[in-house]
Amino acid sequence: MIQAHKKAYLKTYGCQMNEHDSLRMRSVLERQGYALTDDISSADLVVLNTCSVREKPEHKVYSFLGTIRELKHQNPDVIIGVAGCVAQQEGRNLLKREKSVDMVFGPDNMFKLPDMIERVQRGQRVLETKWAERDERRVHDFIPEEELERNTVDGCKAYVAISKGCDNFCTFCVVPYTRGRDISRRPEGIMTEVRDVVGKGGREIMLLGQNVNSYRADEWDFYTLLDAVSRVEGLYRLRFKSPHPNDWNDKLSDLLTARASICNQLHLPYQAGSDRVLLEMRRNHTVDEYLAKIDYLRSINPGVGISTDIICGFPSETDAEFEGTLEVMRHVRFEHLYAFKYSERPNTLAARKIEDDVPEEVKSERLQRVLDLHRTISEEQIDAFVGQTVEVLIDSAHPQERGIMCGRTQGDRPVVVRDASLEIGDLVNVQVDARRKFSLEGVPEIEPS
Ligand code: 5AD
Ligand code: SF4
Asked: Tens digits of per-residue pLDDT, 309-320?
């Protein structure tokens, strides 16, 4: 049943996979006659797409549920849904605990939204946390055929999910429990989606998966897929997130270096700079093995930007072991870095078997040292851009400053460009002549006539 002129408020926590899922839900809802609103008090439907990868985003969800209770009190007709990883993890407990919540559904069930809404309208409270069916080769077209074509592409960038879930069971990580086993989509669906996005003005695509480079479906592996997607005409830029160091190899480094449309950047999480801690984390590689892959890439491609994830204060990590984390930072000089204090996550091996024994102040102090070192490295890197020419994909107009357009480098660094004639989707070479706090500033290079 199509319901006209209803309003939906969709709030997203966490990672790019969640942003992707929210965009999918938005499209399902728009087809049901809902329009998105930023004003929660006028919404007929509220969906929280939650994240539980670390303690902090999960806390944010619970504190927002207080606002929701109040909202439901004022308007008992509003439908409240909790989606994503907290929903998958807490399931029935969440329904029991939060009487204002009408539906709780995991990431595998988001396309059932129309049916779930109808059930709530018939007076039911809905729980959908079953995993989707898939074949024994771990292949499953988890984006339904009717969802392959998008209504629109916002700006010039889009996410395309190629796989979901993870089989690595790193001891700190909740993802295998909230997103399930590692499952790849068939290449046909992915390629159809990529062509559709490009046909609708998409110029940059980010391929998404919890472990993108373990992709395997119908004789295709991640190399085959990256090669095929990067050749799609009209696509300027291809990114992917996140690869695992164990599934990264020199052949992939060769492809990234040779293919102009693959952004000259690699996000490769290393988590900790000590072999003993890496073993406890069950990462299945050593510091040297990680660095050998980075060093090879740098040797053939000195300009490549590398980014990473780090955990500070994993249980039993000593001061000396933590120094190893800083040592890796000094060696690689990451362009972007996402660092987190360790937090115990439900069901994980670390939560069950290892005592969270690094005091909170020590975790905070280590995190601060990581951030301070990164700031020093980053400042030097940003300064070095001044006087250089960088390629920028224009993605928006500056929200406050007239005549200024904004974009990003291949390494995902923000750039403000002083040229009002530029349009979203333009790819320009920019001469950097100044720096702002975290971004670069410049003018388009004048092409020789
Ligand atoms: N504690 C802290 N950080 C974590 N991450 C995942 N699980 C935890 C945890 N329990 C971080 C890792 C991962 C990123 C997405 O989140 O660095 O790469
Ligand atoms: Fe979590 Fe490890 Fe899988 Fe990444 S590779 S999603 S950190 S279990």
From this structure: 999 999 999 999
